[in-house]
Amino acid sequence: MAVLRALLLLATVTRVLANAKYTGTGSTGLYWDCCKPSCSWTEKGPWLTHPVQTCKKDDSPLNDFTVGSACGQGGTAFVCNNQQPWAVNDTFSYAFTSTFIPGASEFDWCCSCYELTFLNGGLEGKRMIVQASNTGYDDPKRTIFGVGAPGEKDYADGCMDRYNSDGGGFLGKEGRPLTKRSDCESLPKQLQQGCFWRFDWFLDAFKPNMTFQRVKCPKALTDITGCIRDDEDKFNASAGGKTNAASTPRGDSFGLLATSLVLAAFAFAFNV
Fold first, then answer.
1. Which CATH number do you get for residue 169?
2. Which of 80, 239, 260, 264 has the fewest CB atoms within 10 Å, i.e. the most exposed one?
3. Is 271 exposed, middle or buried, given 0-12, 13-18 or 19+ CB atoms closer than 10 A?
4. What total of structural domains would you count in the chain?
5. What is the pLDDT of residue 137?
């Protein structure tokens, strides 16, 4: 009887942990380092196509995914400049993120797509669908989606190398990160669009909180990265912020629910 109770508890915990990979709450941030994204390595996910597309210094596609990052690895791979955020309307945007979800791994989130719904920071009511193209290790105890948008001081070194810059355009006045929309004009032309988005749509919010839920990746994102996972069909699509997404893959959710019901029936039958 005690064993049945333990099994029922285990099934419940398993279901909760499985859900946590696909839905929950967390915070967002901003970054742009010009480096090869972590999800651009072949071993980082179950690809139906290939990992996240990388680019050469001149922003032409680099199709050899074994090439190392130009940031500290002696390689020649950079992030492609088209992997910047853009607004569809005043309340909905697309983007690519550096992602970390406690209890999950890169194999779970690399090239997965998520719908984010903002809770504060002046962004209430706004939503995004993002594709996880990179991994963030800033705080392994909490969920974070760092939106790739140019203009942050902390990640300027790789960009300065790419654009042969002394840092003036990337760091803003007195070495501080860019603090107003007009500062974006100091960046290379290729990076200004994402920087403008940061101020126009994201309102330069500081780490706003959000809810997240995995969804099937829209073509608007996968056409840019070329990255599609082999488990995409397990998730429902989301249309412009109106989500019908399952919080867990349909097959996984059914299996966990069935296990829980069977164990519950045993527990009831034997009065345990």
1. 2.40.40.10
2. 239
3. exposed
4. 1
5. 83
The Cα-based distances of 48 to 29, 63, 109, 111 in angstroms read 29, 16, 14, 11
Any domain includes 61 = no
CA 137/CA 253 separation, integer angstroms = 28
Query: Is residue 250 included in any domain, yes or no?
Result: no
* CA 228 – CA 45 distance, rounded (Å): 10
Q: What is the pLDDT of residues 58-97, one digit of tens each?
A: 999 999 999 999 998 789 999 999 999 999 999 999 999 9
Sign of CA dihedral 104, 148, 51, 161: negative
**Domain presence at residue 180:** yes
Contacts 24+ apart (CB under 8 A), 48-51: 48/228, 48/229, 48/230, 48/232, 49/222, 49/226, 49/227, 49/228, 50/226, 50/227, 51/110, 51/111, 51/227
pLDDT at 181 over 50: yes
Q: Model confidence at 167, in pLDDT bands (50, 70, 90)?
A: low
pTM score of the predicted model:
0.82
**pLDDT at residue 173 in the model:** 53
Separation of alpha carbons 132 and 39, rounded Å: 8
What's the CA gap between 214 and 79, in Å, rounded? Answer: 23
Structure tokens at 134: 């990179």
Contact 115/128 with Cβ under 8 angstroms?
Answer: yes
Tokens in use for 244?
């019908």
**Residue range(s) defining the domain that contains residue 94:** 19-35+83-224
pLDDT at 174 over 60: no
| Alpha-carbon span 18 to 29, nearest angstrom | 25
Instruction: Judge whether 47 and 232 are in contact, CB under 8 Å.
Output: no
Catalytic residues: 33
